[in-house]
Structure formats: structure tokens, C-alpha cells
Amino acid sequence: MVRPHNLGCFVKLHLGVEVEHPDYYSSGHPSYTANHKSTADVANELEKQYGIMQVFFDEHKQQIADTIANALLQGINGVHSDHYQLESIERDFRLDVIQKQFDGKTKKPSPTKASLMGVSSRRKRATGVPRPSFLDGGEYMGSFRAWVE
């Protein structure tokens, strides 16, 4: 629960990933993985092992509360606020992944060994070129969503 600044109310913030339709995964689709895991499966595993979304919330909670408050106030004032302007929260999460902001802050040590070795599920072999942790194929980061109720 988040209490947006100066609003006197509580809203429930959800951080998660957009769930794909079951037919979305087939051997011809770029998101298909050899172990047939959906983005939601991967997100759940990453959250259990690393607590990435919790780290993101802890690092940005005041900014998130202010964003929600501004979006709600605009809605009250009659300004159309599609998706309650939570896209900025989603953008900040993606930037944190790209800029390696989770390194050293997760439950399990990071950067991950796979990211340091350049391992990618989209390539047959590791490139040896380090990449940001949690940015293997981009599906997890690209599917990240924030919403309130």
C-alpha cells in the first residue's frame, strides 16, 4: 500500500509483468524458450531469488507515491490521465535494469554470473561481453507494468 503525499488516501500499487496469451509461445515466436517458461514464470522466479521489484520499490517509493498522487489529482481535476501516468514508473524500472542499478542490492548476489559472462537465451553461446543483469532477452523488462487500484 502506498499513501500518496497530501491525498489522505491509500492506493494499492501493483508491480508485475504483462501476462501473455497461452498461444503466444510457440517454437516460431521470439519469446519461445527451450524450457517453455513464460515471462510471468521468469518474473516470479526472479522476484523469489532476487527481489528485484521490491528493491525497485524501496529505492523509488517517494517518487512512486508522488507520481500516483499527481496522476490521481489530475484525474480528480478532470484531466484525462490514461493509465494514470504510471508509464513513468515503468520507464524508471527499465532504466534501472539497463543502468545496472540493481547490482549489489538484491537478495541474491548481483550482477549475475550469467550477465558477466554475456549469456543470452537468444544466442546459442555466450558472447563473453557483459550485459546488465535481468536483461537476458528483454521480455521481462519490456513486459514490466505498474498499476493501481
Give a written overview of the molecule.
The protein is mainly α. It has a domain at 13-102 and 142-148. 40% of the residues lie in helices and 7% in strands. It is built from five helices and two strands. Strands 1-2 form a two-stranded antiparallel sheet. The N and C termini lie close together (10 Å). The mean pLDDT is 80.
Short description:
This protein has 149 residues and is mainly alpha-helical. The chain has helices at residues 39-50, 52-76, 87-98, 113-117, 139-143; strands at 13-17, 144-148.
The poorly predicted ranges are: none
Tell me, what's the shape?
elongated
The secondary-structure element order is: EHHHHHE
Largest sheet: 2 strands, antiparallel
Q: Which radius of gyration do the C-alpha atoms yield?
A: 17 Å
The strand order across the widest sheet is: 1-2
Distance between the termini: 10 Å
- Measured by DSSP, the beta-strand proportion falls in 5-15%
Return the structural class: mainly alpha
Average residue-wise pLDDT:
80
Binned, the helix content reads: 25-40%
Number of strands: 2
Number of helices, counting only DSSP H or I runs of 4 residues or more: 5
